[in-house]
TrEMBL record:
One Pfam match: ABC_tran
Assigned GO CC terms: plasma membrane
Identification of the protein by name: Putative ABC transport system ATP-binding protein
Keywords from the UniProt entry: ATP-binding, Nucleotide-binding, Transport
Boundaries of every ABC transporter domain copy: 3-238
CDD domains recorded: ABC_MJ0796_LolCDE_FtsE
Any GO molecular function: ATP hydrolysis activity
Organism: Streptomyces indicus
InterPro entries in UniProt: AAA+_ATPase, ABC_transporter-like_ATP-bd, ABC_transporter-like_CS, ABC_transpr_LolD-like, MacB-like_ATP-bd, P-loop_NTPase
Length: 238
């Protein structure tokens, strides 16, 4: 189980020309491993995550999830692939205000056609896994920012994905709560053997990653977790 991006190039229209968002990016994340992606605004981090999530089709290159290539798949097939194999944690939790923490997760199971009783059990198990067993009955306004983000992560795990894609999960949290969320993501990655890509702006969390990829001008430079800027290091793909 893994996610593989090979030779990914992505461009956007920019007047009479095209702007390159990703330039021949290659990335391999095996199961049970956490890869952090960092870089300045506009470096290609969000575009990389969108391509990995099959939300955007690249101009060139291949995306393979658990060995399945996404090229040529219909929109319906891509949606099915996302629902069954990819968990996405957006920067903002975007929880439904009228639903309890458990119900936020059960909605995901309902979309996948699972039985209510089984989905309730699964939701409670995941809330327990993220430390919110005693908050299952609470609605978003009754939860702290860190707790809402934990519900967000649990929701992404509801359909037992093999790939976990996480976008800036600590941007709205203080350092202590942010560190707790990163610890949670690290533990879930290893315990549930997900192939995890974490986009983050906070370099204090990089020591928790198995690998760090620095994005610059749409290109990817690999470096070991916890190291400083990859000055002068060669791109993964040139």
């Amino acid at each position: 189980m893994s996610i593989d991006l090979t030779g990914i190039t992505l461009t956007y229209p920019d007047g009479d020309s095209r702007l390159t968002a990703l330039d021949e990016v290659t990335l391999h994340v095996p199961k049970g491993r956490l890869t952090a992606v960092v870089g300045p605004s506009g470096s290609g981090k969000s575009s990389l995550l969108a391509v990995a999530a099959t939300l955007i089709t690249p101009d060139h290159g291949t995306v393979r999830i658990d060995g399945t290539g996404t090229a040529g798949l219909s929109r319906r097939d891509l949606a099915e692939l996302r629902r069954r194999t990819i968990g996405i944690v957006f920067q903002q939790p975007n929880l439904l205000p009228s639903l309890t923490a458990a119900e936020q997760l059960q909605v995901m199971a309902h979309l996948d056609g699972r039985r209510p009783a089984r989905s309730r059990t699964r939701a409670l198990e995941l809330l327990d896994a993220v430390g919110l067993a005693d908050q299952a009955h609470r609605r978003p306004h009754e939860l702290s920012g860190g707790q809402r983000q934990r519900v967000n992560i649990a929701r992404a795990l509801m359909n037992d994905p093999t790939v976990l894609l996480i976008d800036e999960p600590t941007s709205a949290l203080d350092h202590e709560r942010g560190a707790a969320v990163i610890d949670l993501i690290t533990g879930l990655t290893h315990d549930r053997s997900t192939a995890t890509i974490l986009v983050t702006h906070d370099r204090t969390h990089l020591a928790a990653a198995d690998e760090t990829v620095e994005m610059r001008d749409g290109r990817a430079l690999a470096r070991a977790a916890g190291e400083g800027p990859a000055a002068g290091q060669e791109p993964v793909v040139t």
